[in-house]
């Protein structure tokens, strides 16, 4: 359904702007698909959180995970339904775990996260390939900056919010590891040059 919508929008854009090459049209369609898909998943998470009275907690989880995914990347589910389920599980799971862990675990988790980020990030998938060593260094640098800002933030907020941020950082860093690639059937792009 979503692919038909993005295909239609892309075709309309090509009709209006005929100088769009087929390669550009493909990129536009993919960007639209990912954008609409991501926005709908985030909205679903937020809407469900309202009657549960955990909107701010879920919003914090989405922001912390999303900010890291921009630079560190991570594996992707093969289908939209799997993506939606895994996204719900990771976001709501981090909120639930944060409720039951009574102490701040930020320092312990961030040591693991920094290590995994150094070893494996950014993720290199065919859908989002790392095209050069320079690109990889840039993404890793931004990832470390984001991690450092999130770690600083965890020292300034309550235990509940600190743990949500920390657990999401851990989830994102695990999603860049070879084990995560293997378990989910993802492959490296092998485009880095």
TrEMBL record:
<feature type="transmembrane region" description="Helical">
    <location>
        <begin position="139"/>
        <end position="158"/>
    </location>
</feature>
<dbReference type="Pfam" id="PF04647">
    <property type="entry name" value="AgrB"/>
</dbReference>
<keyword id="KW-0645">Protease</keyword>
<protein>
    <submittedName>
        <fullName>Accessory gene regulator B</fullName>
    </submittedName>
</protein>
<dbReference type="GO" id="GO:0009372">
    <property type="term" value="P:quorum sensing"/>
</dbReference>
<keyword id="KW-0472">Membrane</keyword>
<keyword id="KW-1133">Transmembrane helix</keyword>
<keyword id="KW-0673">Quorum sensing</keyword>
<keyword id="KW-0378">Hydrolase</keyword>
<feature type="transmembrane region" description="Helical">
    <location>
        <begin position="107"/>
        <end position="127"/>
    </location>
</feature>
<dbReference type="InterPro" id="IPR006741">
    <property type="entry name" value="AgrB"/>
</dbReference>
<keyword id="KW-0812">Transmembrane</keyword>
<dbReference type="GO" id="GO:0008233">
    <property type="term" value="F:peptidase activity"/>
</dbReference>
<feature type="transmembrane region" description="Helical">
    <location>
        <begin position="42"/>
        <end position="63"/>
    </location>
</feature>
<dbReference type="GO" id="GO:0006508">
    <property type="term" value="P:proteolysis"/>
</dbReference>
<feature type="transmembrane region" description="Helical">
    <location>
        <begin position="84"/>
        <end position="101"/>
    </location>
</feature>
<keyword id="KW-1003">Cell membrane</keyword>
<dbReference type="GO" id="GO:0016020">
    <property type="term" value="C:membrane"/>
</dbReference>
């Amino acid at each position: 359904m979503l692919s038909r919508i993005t295909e239609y929008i892309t075709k309309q854009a090509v009709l209006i702007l005929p100088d769009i090459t087929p390669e550009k049209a493909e990129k536009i369609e993919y960007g639209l698909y990912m954008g609409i898909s991501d926005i709908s998943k985030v909205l679903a998470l937020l809407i469900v959180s309202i009657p549960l009275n955990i909107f701010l907690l879920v919003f914090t989880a989405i922001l912390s995970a999303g900010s890291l995914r921009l630079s560190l990347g991570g594996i992707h589910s093969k289908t939209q339904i799997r993506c939606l389920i895994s996204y719900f599980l990771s976001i709501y799971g981090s909120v639930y775990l944060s409720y039951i862990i009574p102490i701040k675990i930020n320092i312990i988790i961030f040591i693991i996260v920094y290590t995994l980020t150094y070893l494996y990030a950014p993720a290199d998938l065919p859908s989002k390939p790392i095209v050069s060593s320079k690109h990889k260094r840039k993404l890793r640098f931004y990832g470390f900056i984001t991690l450092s800002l999130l770690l600083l933030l965890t020292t300034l907020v309550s235990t509940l919010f600190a743990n949500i941020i920390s657990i999401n950082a851990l989830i994102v860093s695990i999603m860049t590891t070879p084990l995560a690639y293997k378990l989910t059937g993802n492959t490296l792009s092998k485009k880095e040059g």
